[in-house]
């Protein structure tokens, strides 16, 4: 889907995704000292808004202006800059403390580019955080994209980071990297973030959190 198609999708409903931050994003940023953050593929801004409420200064990047406008309406005067741009090519203008990608699903070459830009934007000691639908979700989980090309594993993402670090002379330390389960209410609610007692349905996500060393 291109920007105009996403604009149409975002315009067609009050919220496409949950108003609450993704559960894994909320868990992983809880122990971080607030600073400067970028949220690539921010959509309606639920994770950026969560960060801002914790004291972060956030730049939320997405190529759908409709989505960003909805986020701005919710965020009010929270310290968020809303940037309409392609998250796969956008480069942060200054070093940041947190670079985040949450459910940004693009083909492998675009994913590698985005991950490189994101990690490259970090200051030493900064955190890179990625959450997305795991490749195994296609056969073992529920919801999410049905195109295997845009799915990923933690190993794929670490490979992207390794490639960038070899070219940039950088390094990182892995905090978490693997597959995580996320209960969902019913098929089609692929970004649901609340447990639903009695339901056996689950989605499998890829979670990668690393700290930049050099």
TrEMBL record:
<dbReference type="InterPro" id="IPR029063">
    <property type="entry name" value="SAM-dependent_MTases_sf"/>
</dbReference>
<protein>
    <recommendedName>
        <fullName>Methyltransferase domain-containing protein</fullName>
    </recommendedName>
</protein>
<dbReference type="InterPro" id="IPR041698">
    <property type="entry name" value="Methyltransf_25"/>
</dbReference>
<keyword id="KW-0808">Transferase</keyword>
<feature type="domain" description="Methyltransferase">
    <location>
        <begin position="38"/>
        <end position="126"/>
    </location>
</feature>
<dbReference type="Pfam" id="PF13649">
    <property type="entry name" value="Methyltransf_25"/>
</dbReference>
């Amino acid at each position: 889907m291109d920007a105009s198609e996403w604009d149409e999708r975002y315009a067609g409903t009050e919220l496409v995704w949950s108003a609450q931050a993704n559960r894994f994003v909320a868990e992983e940023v809880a122990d971080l000292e607030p600073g400067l953050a970028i949220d690539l593929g921010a959509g309606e801004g639920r994770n950026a808004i969560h960060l801002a409420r914790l004291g972060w200064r956030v730049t939320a990047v997405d190529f759908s202006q409709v989505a960003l406008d909805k986020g701005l309406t919710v965020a009010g005067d929270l310290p968020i800059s809303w940037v309409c741009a392609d998250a796969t090519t956008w480069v942060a203008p200054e070093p940041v403390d947190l670079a985040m990608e949450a459910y940004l699903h693009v083909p492998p070459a675009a994913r590698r580019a985005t991950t490189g830009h994101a990690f490259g934007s970090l200051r030493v000691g900064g955190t890179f955080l990625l959450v997305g639908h795991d490749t195994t979700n296609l056969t073992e989980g529920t919801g999410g994209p049905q195109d295997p090309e845009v799915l990923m594993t933690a190993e794929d993402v670490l490979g992207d980071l390794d490639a960038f670090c070899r070219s940039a002379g950088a390094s990182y330390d892995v905090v978490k990297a693997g597959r995580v389960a996320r209960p969902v209410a019913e098929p089609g609610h692929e970004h649901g973030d609340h447990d639903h007692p009695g339901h056996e349905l689950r989605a499998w996500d890829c979670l990668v959190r690393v700290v930049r060393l050099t």
